[in-house]
Amino acid sequence: MSAATSTTDSTTTNTTNTPTFTTDPTAPTNTTSAPTSTTGSAALATKTSTPTPSTNTPGSRSPCQKDPCKGGSSCVNLHDRWFCLCLEGYYYNTSTCNKGKIFPGTITVNIASTSGLEDENSMAYQELHFKITKFFEKAFDSSDYGQTVIGKLSTSPSARSAMHTVDVAVVNIFLETTKQTEETVSRAIERAIKHSANEFTSYIEQDRCDYYGCEKENGQDDCTSGLLCQCKPGLLRPNPQIPQCVALGPKCPDDCNTQNTEKQCLVKDSWNATCVCPPGYKEDDRGICQQCAFGYSGVDCEDSFQLILTIVGTIAGILILGLVIAIILVSSMNKRRNVEQQKLIENDFQNRKLRNTGFSNLGADGSIFPKINMNLPKESQPQNPYVIQGGIPRADY
């Protein structure tokens, strides 16, 4: 059985498709609808994957512009080559999509550099893509192998060398009527790894039920038909024709985002959602969000930073005001004391001058020459010749 067709402008090469998908069924998965038309029962199938970007990186060509893929498949660009991608559980063969049986797992690849692997349009990703697909083509060369789907990449440096190891999630698809089992597929891959030990390190198979996100109803149930298996708790099948069970987003209570309560829906994790009051509000006994009291904020009004800041600011203002008043009082007292000291200094200076001149006291007017009162008889007082001794004559008019 030939593998999926991949080509350049004029060269045809056998290879497989490389959609990005989630291998952990318990984690939320993005569901992207693949082409709606296909052959047979594939028309209702859907691929759970992250679509490859439809635009090319600068400098790369766009071979998918010619729409080379047929049979309901979609064209996916790499760096300068393309391949046809069918829906989940189908493989591309000779311009048609055929239903197959999947065998998921993870293979570890040795690589010198991981630069550019995050870009599916880069040359590094294209080289890794063909390196892996050719490895599986060789490993299942004599079987009813159909195609390999390359999933997400996880890189890590090697502790013993400069090489890096890349864990690649893959899904090997065989004919729907194949006799292959998980054991036979794993043994074939392990034999191929022994012959390519420098490039590939190990392979770990994944349980098909875990890949689909289904429960095993009994020990013999291998979830061959993903459409019939029962989803695990917390997972739902968004469409009856989608094999994967995915984790839908948590549903918020109906009383959220109403004018009466002012509540908001808060998604705490992938499974739980709850109604809470927005920051700055707190729920009262009636279940209504009330604005926080003065000084409080945050979720459930638990942040008292504003109150602390207000108290500290008030205390600081009082202290500053008291300090200013104290400075004014001290300055006024010092000024009064300086005036008194100046008077004492002046008096002391005058007394020193009197002692130096032989006088013991100051005059009445503060001069250094005191006035002396002499009690002399009136007759002995000197007469002023200019003083009129008689009375002033009266006016005769």
From TrEMBL:
Region called Disordered, residue ranges: 1-68
UniProt keyword list: Cell membrane, Disulfide bond, EGF-like domain, Glycoprotein, Membrane, Repeat, Signal, Transmembrane, Transmembrane helix
Protein name from the UniProt record: Mucin-13
Pfam families: SEA
SMART domains named in the record: EGF (SM00181), SEA (SM00200)
EGF-like domain mapped to chain residues: 60-98
Coarse class of the protein's main subcellular location: membrane
GO CC terms of this entry: plasma membrane
Coiled coil: none
Spans through the membrane: 307-330
Protein localization: Cell membrane
Residue stretches of biased makeup (Low complexity): 1-63
Domain SEA: 99-210
Classification lineage: Eukaryota, Metazoa, Chordata, Craniata, Vertebrata
